[in-house]
Structure formats: C-alpha cells, structure tokens
TrEMBL record:
Pfam families: Amidohydro_1. One of its GO terms (molecular function) is hydrolase activity, acting on carbon-nitrogen (but not peptide) bonds. It comes from Microvirga aerilata. Zn(2+) 2 binds at K164, H197, H220. This is Amidohydrolase/deacetylase family metallohydrolase.
C-alpha cells in the first residue's frame, strides 16, 4: 500500500469540470480519494500548496522520448518532473524496426506515462542527428513497410496510439505522392489516428490535408515554412485548412525548433485556426533553445492572449480527448492521481519563437511538484546532457 498523501490549501483548477476553488486533495493507492475544502491530515503526508495552483498532470501531445535509441530523444523521467508533464506522447521516434526496444527499455521502465505513435518508416528517426548529411527516413519509400507494421500491431497493438508521418522535404524528399496514401493505409490497418507533420515542401500542405480524416491530427500548425504553412502568400487561411477543421481534423501546435512563428500563429488564430493541443515537439536539438518545456510554450500562448484556463485545457483534457483517454487530464474523485503543483509568476518574461521574434508574457508557470499515478516523481542527475547540438 502506498503512502497516503494530502495536498492542502491549493487552488484547484480543472478545465474539464470547470472547477476553480481552494480545496484539499487526498490521494491513496494511486487514486484521488478525497476532494473537499478541508480534509483531516491525520495519517497523511501533507504537501502545503497554499498560494499554489493544483492542476491535472499535463499531457504533451508531441514529444521525442526514445533516449538512447535516437539522438533526438530526451529522458521523460528526468525532464517531466521539472515541468508537470505526466503524459508524454512520443510522436514517431521509432518505427517497426525499433519499437520493441522503445517499449521494453524506455516505456515500461518509466515512472511517467509514455504513449507512443509509431513512425510509418521502418527505421523511425534513428538517422536524425547521426549523419553529417541530411537523409530522411522516407527518402527511400520502401521503408514504409506495411507488412512490418502489421507484425507490430499483432504484438503491440494495444499500446500504439497512432501512426506518424513527417510529410516534408527533409523527411521524404519527393516521395510525398507515394508515402501519403501509405500513411493513410497504415493508420487504417492499425485502427488508430494518423498524425502528419508539415514542414518545407514538397509535399505542399494542400496535398497533405486530404489524407487526414476526422480524429486525425495535423501538427506544426503555426510553422512558417514554404509550402507547409497554413496561410497562403497573402496571409489568408488556406481553404484546405478550413475544410480539414470542418471535418474534424485535430490541430496540434508542435512548437519544435523551427515550427512556431508568433506572426503566423496570431494571423491564423484571428482567422479561426485554434489549437486542439499545445505541445512542444521537445527533443535534444531544442530543449536548450526556444522550447525548454511545456510550461514555457504555454506561456507563449498566454502572451498571445489565451487565458490560464485555456492553456491548461489545451494541455490536459483536450489532448487526452484526442487520444481517447478520458482517464487523463482530469482531477476527479476515484480517478488516477496525475497532478502538478505550480507557482504562478507574474513577472514579465520575454519569450522567443523559432524565427527569433519575441513577445512579452506577463504570466508564467513554475513547477513545484509532479505526481504520476499517485507517486511523487522527482528529477535526478544521470550525467547525461539532454540538449545536443550537431555541426
């Protein structure tokens, strides 16, 4: 039996229930067993959250957590406790060739929750950062091996949450017309959503979007790349994007090192392109740069005019709903105790996008405590540098 824990006197803010009040939260055996204005502290280890914000554990819809298996990967167990992110959605770090290693050596051993999307490419992102020349994972379209994905489904089908395709020049070269229909077929075979990354063309975003259907996901929605931007040359939202929104395609931020522009975001939001999830695309190339962590990216959206409640919704229950995981991103009696405690800072901070443009954020979040499955999760030092640069 695990230790009983009591988070006392915190401001509980849960967008899923619209609950915003000072309450005590009692936790036992990994579950929330009490939510009340006052709970007796007898028999509990008490965490004093007076003046702090208590929220559902954050869900980062776009990460790369296969550390040791790819040079892009960062250690969720080490980084997550510093940011309040209890659920990491790994977006295609591994393909069919490397999925077993990711599952047994990272996912199963993690104190946090890692939900994987499998890459359409057999090799996944093993090549990223390894070579002195840019060779994408689908430069040879034959790496889109549907037979291998069928084998992976037979063994890991209950674990895989989606299929990932990087539909940009640096990933598939000129093979877009071949790999796009294969990605659609792969997602249908695995009976999971398809998430497509858009970047510098080819293929162009207008060619990509027809392959996404209701419940699928477009990521990097505010990227400024040529041919992959949601806005046309006149800064108008593309009709293909409006059509995708109308048919139920989900929109993910996926900030990344090169995929977020304040200017594009502001113009797109003003024209109706709101995100369904705020995510980082955190990896070794950007963790020490413009991304840092999910609260840092959330602050950029508050600098764009989003409220605290809005950014929390887009990092808790909204991505959980995209994943069809109603057990995540919520604080409810009897539910799994995934929680984060934040100090809300009101010191103005200047934040930067992928192009070097900046905005001032009046509000930022500083993580004080992270709990996953009812257990306090602390960071650690393992001597490994998470951020990496390559010449």
């Amino acid at each position: 039996m695990s230790e009983r824990l009591l988070i006392k006197n915190g401001r509980l803010l849960d967008p899923s229930s619209r609950r915003d009040e000072i309450v005590d939260v009692a936790i036992a055996d990994g579950r929330i067993v009490g939510l009340a204005p006052h709970i007796d502290a007898s028999g509990h280890h008490v965490v004093d959250a007076t003046g702090a914000l208590v929220v559902p554990g954050l869900v980062d819809m776009h990460t790369h957590a296969y550390w040791g298996g790819t040079l892009l990967g960062v250690n969720a167990d080490k980084i997550g406790p510093l940011s309040g992110v209890t659920t990491w959605v790994d977006c295609g770090s591994c393909g069919a060739a490397t999925f077993e290693g990711f599952f047994h050596h990272v996912i199963k051993l993690s104190r946090l929750r890692i939900i994987p999307f499998v890459n359409l490419s057999y090799i996944g992102l093993t090549q990223a950062g390894n070579l002195s020349i840019d060779v994408g994972e689908l430069y040879d379209w034959r790496f889109a091996d549907l037979r291998a994905l069928r084998r992976i489904k037979a063994e890991f089908g209950s674990v895989i949450a989606g299929v990932k395709l990087r539909a940009s020049n640096n990933a598939c070269g000129a093979n877009g017309p071949i790999v796009l229909p294969l990605a659609r077929e792969a997602a249908d075979i695995l009976e999971v959503p398809l998430i497509i990354h858009v970047g510098t063309a080819p293929p162009r975003i207008d060619e990509v979007l027809p392959y996404l259907k209701e419940g699928d996901i477009l990521t990097h929605i505010y990227n400024p790349s040529i041919g992959g931007c949601v806005l046309d040359e006149r800064m108008r939202l593309r009709p293909s994007v409006r059509e995708a929104i109308a048919r139920g395609v989900k929109m993910d931020v996926g900030h990344g090192g090169a995929s977020f522009s304040f200017e594009i975001a502001k113009a797109a939001i003003d024209q109706g392109l709101l995100p369904d999830a705020i995510s980082t695309d955190i990896h070794a190339h950007n963790i020490d740069g413009v991304v840092i962590d999910l609260p840092h990216v959330m602050a950029k959206f508050m600098a764009l005019g989003f409220s605290l409640e809005q950014v929390l919704r887009l990092t808790t229950c909204s991505p959980a709903d995209i994943l069809n995981r109603p057990d995540l991103g919520r604080i409810e009696l009897g539910g799994e105790a995934d929680l984060a405690v934040f100090h809300v800072r009101h010191d103005p901070v200047r934040l930067y996008d992928s192009l070097g443009a900046s905005r001032e954020a009046a509000t930022t979040l500083e993580c004080r405590l992270t709990l996953c499955k009812g257990q306090v999760v602390n960071t650690f030092e393992d001597g490994r540098t998470e951020g990496r640069t390559y010449s």
